[in-house]
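Figure S4 source data
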Amino acid sequence: MSVVEEYARAHILTDADLPDEDDGGATPVVLRYDPDHDPRSVCVALPARGRGPGPREWTFSRALLEQGLRAPAGTGEVRVWPCGRVQAVVELHSSQGCSVVQFETRTLTRFLRRTRTAAAQPVAH
């Protein structure tokens, strides 16, 4: 099976230090699904912020992302909810703080469709 990566642009609000050049515009975010590693999980990678180390990544249930597009879902480190008709919010908590990431729903829907296709592919022997 193959890894699915979706490069998306999202609006990120965070309580971590922001770089001086941040203009509040859309930021590149990587959505990743590796069915060979864990067929039930997806990964969201945010770029490094401020003086922190490299990109920050959260791995969580693919089902949580799907549920959160329809109604608020999740507890703890990751929460997802619809925001109007065309956007969805993913709230990510870590020891460094909280990031609220606003995506276009169609981006997440396209990514999830690609993960379902990848998960359905037969394993080559």
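Figure S5 source data
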Amino acid sequence: MAAAQRTADLAPLHVPPALTLLGVLRERLPGVPHVLCPDTAFHNDLPEAAATYPLPAVWRERYGLRRYGFHGLSYRWALDRTSELLDRPATGLSLLMTHLGGGSSVCAVRDGRSVDTSMGFTPLEGVPMSKRSGSIDPGMLLWLLRRDDLDLDTVEHCLNNESGLLGLSGGRSGDTRDLVAAAGEGDEAAATALRVFAHRVRRELAASATSLDRIDALVFTGEIGWDQPEVRADVVAGLALLGIRGEVNGDPGGDGRISSPDAAVPVLVVRPREELQLCRDTMAALGAG
């Protein structure tokens, strides 16, 4: 609990509310075990090359600066479902996975382990999200912080709450459903937001693919990945260089394959069920799984 409190500012949209809830539950249910299931655990064994930032060693050691990764509960669930769908053991799969939702990320899985992921020290790194910026030039942040009209709190708020799809669309929406509809009606800012989003997801997928020796499947999960066929199609359309070609259908009717049967690299969708993965991990921690 103390360690989680010390690092709460790394994920300000998630950890502080969770710790508040945990505090209330511990007070009201003191005789019941309480289990924390970190979203970072799935990425805990990232290879050194993928986890290490090119920063001074004294910083890395003093402050624990490394790439932690997030969406681990979602990726763990999606990995097991993909194993079932492909009828192959998870420990034998090499997958490109992407969780697209309010927060979005990419992950490469080899032999059942995360070997690269787009989120890093905080959930701000990586692809643009609903309201979070994703990766931007750190030099630009330094430049902005030297402006007389911007302070640290303002910049932090804007990066977490006014950027991403919301910022790209000129404040119209951070929801891809709204943006797809608006783009269809000729809203150029909405169309640009969707193009930037798909481009950045493709770029992260291509980068993560370098951590694999083959691609057994591309897996979409998260609210957008599961239920936004237009976004999935835009992402897949730019991945021919990775051997991911062909059209994907709009609705798999549940977890399943959305690429053609003869596709060299199958494309799958898996409904996000992080709440069920939380149950699995909790039962395992209590020795009942």
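The two ends are 23 Å apart (CA to CA). The beta strands are 94-99, 105-110, 113-117, 217-221, 256-257, 267-269.
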